[in-house]
Amino acid sequence: MSAKWIVVTGMLLWSFTAQAVLTIEITRGVDTGTPIAIVPFSWEGPIKPAQNVSDIVEADLARSGRFAVLPRKDFISTPHEDKDVVFKDWRILKAEALTVGSVRLSTPGKFQVQFRLYDVFKETQIAGFRYTISADLMRSVAHQIGDIIYEKITGEHGAFNTRIAYVTREEPPRGLPVYKLQVADSDGFNAQTVVRSAEPLMSPAWSPDGNRLAYVSFEDKRSKVYVQSLTDGRRELLAEFTGINSAPAWSPDGTRLALTLSRDGNAEIYVMLLNSRALKRLTFDPAIDTEPSWSPDGRDIIFTSDRAGSPQIYRMNASGGSAERLTFEGDYNARSSYAADGKSITFVSRNQGGYRIAVMRLDNKTAQVLTDTSLDESPSFAPNGRMIIYATEVRGRGVLASVSADGRVRQLFKFEEGDIREPAWSPYNRELQYKE
Fold this sequence. Notes:
Layout: E1 22-28, E2 34-38, E3 42-44, H1 53-64, E4 67-69, H2 87-92, E5 97-107, E6 110-119, E7 124-134, H3 138-154, E8 163-170, E9 178-185, E10 192-197, E11 202-206, E12 212-217, E13 224-229, E14 235-239, E15 245-250, E16 256-261, E17 268-273, E18 278-281, E19 289-294, E20 300-305, E21 312-317, E22 323-325, E23 333-338, E24 344-351, E25 354-361, E26 366-369, E27 377-381, E28 387-394, E29 397-404, E30 410-415, E31 419-425
Helix pairs in contact: 1-3
């Protein structure tokens, strides 16, 4: 199903520029969740910032499936400061949590954003922070506020203040298609172009620190693995051996890269020590072994192999040795990766004639199909393990979508332009400075 994304070529450019307009459509939600009210933040200053913090926070919480965000039209009051909060107003609406806040211009080019989170029934403040930021960090601070609310209410880490990487294909009215490796906020907004090519790109993989992306290109009509820095725009060529160079995956400590090479004549899994470029071959099988992914503790690697006659998922020690087959249902299971806790994996499974996103608990090997579309691919867990982003097709066009790890919440990311593939969710890496 992904054959058209296997070969990549072209010249790469460093360009961090804003990209296509995006809308998000929730295609399946849940009626349950913590009822929460997000009061529109007040604004003080001559020019209102382009990003509306409270709107972003509300959208994050609504998309998570863990909250029931109350409609603003029902609000009895609109407090912005602690002294203005009347808890009785929010108990009437059956809100269990309440968020209020404000944004003001503190100095030229700097904004002060503050918020408070309350337990309505206990009439107590759960959290309250103040940030001083530049305008370009407004979305990021909104996502971090969402993460704080999420964690305080659910007891789990949020993943709103993270990023996604993906590949787009755009066809101009004249000339050849343009392929871009892009990075955006976790909700798909604030997209920036990292790599630009005249041919397809594939397999972006985040480094553990979130500052680099490994990817595959076919420059000079040969497959090569590169690493692109997101901080200074530099790129480094890691693999250009004879034959296939593909499917890069970072070790959790960032010192090694697992990848697929056919330098010895057959597609096998190798590990490269990045400081010396030393290679170690892990698989020795006449079948095709590809798509490695590390366990969070760095002890194991899962990969795809057709050694049983069809693509299935296997697990082996990260130092090599025998491999254990994990998937047995269906004749196609591939493109696997771990959740952050190492207890489950996500993968693409051919089910009832369609390619769908599935998860498997590793303790009992039980699998659950999460999606019902027919051309889903490239699943990637959020760093908190609660959501999975993947690529699918809508009316013949590639789009991004996400599904909760239990399958109850689904959404589509609809970009105005381009065909979207190969998503990868970043690790946690962008903490902002704040004071309580």
